[in-house]
Write a structure and sequence with these properties.
Shape: globular
Number of helices: 6
Strand order of the largest sheet: 4-5-8-9
Strand content: 15-25%
Radius of gyration: 19 Å
Structural class: alpha/beta
Largest sheet: 4 strands, mixed
Order of helices and strands: EHHEHEEEEEHEHEH
Oligomer: single chain
Number of strands: 9
């Protein structure tokens, strides 16, 4: 990228660079910025200020509902497909309803982070809009542990079912077995998970 356009700013984030920001800069000297932790506020800071320090850290927002919805109109959903058993490759979308996980799993990069819930109606609005506007049929929840809050899961499933979305779309999510119950899993299956 720098060979083609030397002045372009390259920003990276994610688990690896958050754990090893200086090592990442040492290994990849063409990077301009490393975002440690959540990136929404850091991205705005970088775009507006072009800070001198290459390692950018911001405090986590208390509520993830304060962030604007993704600019899905800029995405070509023809490139984003995933296998749905029995239906083949279908348009997929990604979203988040809970950010953070309180557990301390040694294999995970998100450890001991207070879970913060999004408003369920806003999450399902996002699903409904993507389905109606782009024909999205599969949604992947990128929540660290969707089932960490029992009430949230039941509220989310009820909202999906009440809008009839469970008849048209399917959902994937990450969880921990010890945060589920048979009743919860039954409700998730009913909602299309």
């Amino acid at each position: 990228i720098k060979k083609v356009k030397p002045n372009i700013k390259i920003v990276v984030g994610g688990s690896h660079v958050s754990a090893l920001p200086q090592n990442t800069l040492d290994d990849c000297p063409d990077l301009d910025y490393i975002v440690v932790g959540e990136g929404e506020l850091s991205a705005v800071h970088i775009a507006n200020d072009l800070p001198d320090s290459p390692i950018i850290r911001t405090e986590d927002e208390e509520t993830v509902d304060s962030y604007p919805l993704p600019a899905r109109h800029l995405v070509d959903y023809g490139y984003y497909k995933y296998a749905w058993p029995g239906r083949g490759m279908v348009k997929m979308d990604a979203l988040e309803s809970i950010r953070g996980c309180p557990f301390m799993c040694t294999f995970c990069s998100v450890r001991g982070v207070k879970p913060r819930r999004r408003n369920v109606k806003r999450v399902v609005d996002e699903i409904e809009r993507s389905y109606q506007t782009y024909g999205t049929q599969l949604f992947m929840f990128f929540d660290d542990t969707l089932t960490v809050n029992r009430r949230h899961v039941f509220d989310l499933c009820e909202e999906i079912i009440s809008r009839g979305l469970h008849k048209h779309v399917v959902f994937y999510a990450n969880t921990r077995a010890n945060t589920t119950t048979p009743e919860m899993l039954d409700k998730m299956i009913e909602a299309g998970f």
